[in-house]
Amino acid sequence: MAALRKLATIAAGAVLLALLPAQAPALAAGAPIGPLTPKDVVYQIITDRFFDGDTANNRPAGFDPTLFDDPDANNVGNGSDLKLYQGGDWDGIIAKIPYLKNMGISAVWISAPYRNRDTVIEDHQPGGGLDRWTSFHGYHVRNYFATNKHFGTLAEFRSLRDALHAQGIKLVIDFVTNHTSRWQNPTLGNAAEDGKLYEPDKDGLGNYVFNGAGEPIDNNADGITENLLANPHADVNGWFHGLGDRGGDSSRFGYRNKELGSLADFSQENANVVKHLEKAALFWKAEGVDGFRHDATLHMNPAFTKGLKDAIDSAPQGPMAHFGEFFIGRPDPKYDEYRTFPDRTGVNNLDFEYFRASTNAFGNFSETMANFGSMLTQTSTDYIYENQAVTFLDNHDVTRFRFIQPNDKPYHAALATLLTARGTPNIYYGTEQYVSSVNASDVAGRQFLQTAGPAFSQTTTAYKVIQALAALRKTNDAVAYGETQILHSTNDVLVFKRQFYDKQVIVSVNRQPATAFTVPALATTIPAGTYTDQLTGLLGGASTTVAGGLLPSFSLSGGEVNVWSYNPSLGTTIPRIGDVVSTSGRAGNTVYIYGTGLGGAVTVKFGTVTATVTSNSDGQITTTVPAGAVAGVQNITVTKGANVSNTFRYEVLSGNQVQVIFKINTTTVPGENIHILGNIPELGSWDTTKITEALHNPNYPVWFLPVSVPAGTTIQFKFMRKVGAAAPTFEGGSNRSFTVPADTQGSTDTPVYTWQP
């Protein structure tokens, strides 16, 4: 770690970011406009691959110009070598905000904004060739407190934030806390590579130093503006796990502690690592972003993730949107871990189960539409917060959907279904322009939109489908908050309903491009009357007339999609909860409640304890977790007069969350695991149905598990043995006692206990 440098004076115009963990940077001028809700449609942009608004940053100072894809030397990326930089930047996104706004986009997810490794990544091929890569994607962090100069300065980032917010568009940033960059080259005998982490100059008190524009400065006059903080090749302070690539290790320990693609894996159990990563997240929260997309959550320690989310949401400006990349492909032994990750950490999932099912149903036709409908209803049961799961057809980690499905009709049908199904839909940049790829790789799909086909046409059918259904998602709460019911399904046809109280949307879809099918008359609860297709015939749909409680039999032509909407007013008398953000927090944390009938004189309760309402309107309440709320899972209700709303699940945390790494030395029989149970909700409150996940045992017979628990608390607990679904067996003796340190950032280890017979 770089030593503190004491200076007699501070550079003129400099500002400070305190190193002390309890402090965060002062809030920037642009405050967030709110977290994601299921009414939003997200648009994912790989910043380098969207639009080049400022050619001056295509070759930043010190950058190897051969790593910019410009064979004709006109300072514009050619879009041909997708391993190299293409030139997209924040000014380019600003230039296309009218395009996004008109499409109905209400949130933009961009690449990580901070400085990345900027040297070549060389992959040596078996035949003697050499592939040259760059970190254009933003997943190779070098310095969390400086911007990626390929994208722009901090002032330009703030301009992007302000321009998006002025149009009511939320800003979500990619954020990587699992790793730095590749530190060993697996194509060259694991030769040493990079993986180093840097930080800005500090003053004599340990504060980071920036100029008035928020840029790091050379405060100590040594000719550089950043200092080496952690190095996986000389890791004297234990910042990295250093266990090598995961390879075929499919254990939970392997996924969380070994390396993903030889990327230097942070030891998220190290208190200094936790403090630095939380401080970095708060730095960007203070810049007014509306949410974080957390990278590689499958590979992260859930106790760390829960504490990070808690630290972010407890800082000024309230809760943010949090969703992450828990990459699975069912059938998968990690499915239960995946589906419960949002409940255990507060960070929701990118919905890879939706992606898998839609790819198979609409893309390669390997599963039926009935299978797809079963996925919708099954996950609506499996996911506690199903409408917060971020659904998608494709993204930067998988093949372009257009490569799998080149036919417009099933392509459009898949897109229309995405925008009307449960969850919060995410559109991968260029989907509206039918961007495809030359092969099935994820990199081949990371096209430079500026040079790809029609680029930014607003007349494509896909663009218009998004435009129409984004508007419906905002206006009919059935799409945003409703439950899902399958009305009819066959191999090729699906009719499903979304319903939020009396509000309903019925969607009928034929995936076959050239075959018509007849749908029988279906019972319905929408009133008699004529309902127009909300796509106005864009995908072949037409009006229908309901009579006698029946949706009449109708024919679906090839690729036809109908979207029929019943959207009555629910009035303002009865409060109804549609969504809550965030879904976990501690006393004093801000909570947003969304729905209808929430204006006027209302009472909000967490369990039986009344909360303070800060502000409210018919569609939203801002409140805080009351000091007397009982820790653990509680139901939020809203009362208005004699009317009480539906309930919404919320986890009240016992306090400021920190990690304790529990350890025990004990032998077991094959198939037996060790768990923990204790007297606080985070340890199950002595309920044997709520024991922790199994401890890890890479150094058997020593077992360990990081658990997120409240700081400054004395906890009681015991270890337990468990085999499969059998009842667990407690160790003997008295309850164990451990006092969690009061440090609200970081982590601590228990002693290595011995099993009590």
Description:
The protein has 757 residues and is of the alpha+beta class. Among the domains are: 47-176, Glycosidases (TIM Barrel), CATH 3.20.20; 479-566, Immunoglobulin-like (Sandwich), CATH 2.60.40.1180; 576-652, Immunoglobulins (Immunoglobulin-like), CATH 2.60.40; 657-754, Immunoglobulins (Immunoglobulin-like), CATH 2.60.40.10. The protein is built from 13 helices and 48 strands. The strands form 15 sheets. An eight-stranded parallel β-sheet has the order 18-17-16-8-3-2-20-19. Strands 32, 34, 35, 38, 39 and 40 form a six-stranded mixed β-sheet that branches. It is globular, with a radius of gyration of 26 Å. It starts with 14 loop residues before the first strand and ends with a strand. Mean pLDDT is 95; it is low at 1-14 and 17-27. Belongs to the glycosyl hydrolase 13 family. It catalyses: Endohydrolysis of (1->4)-alpha-D-glucosidic linkages in polysaccharides containing three or more (1->4)-alpha-linked D-glucose units. GO terms for molecular function: alpha-amylase activity; metal ion binding; starch binding; transferase activity.
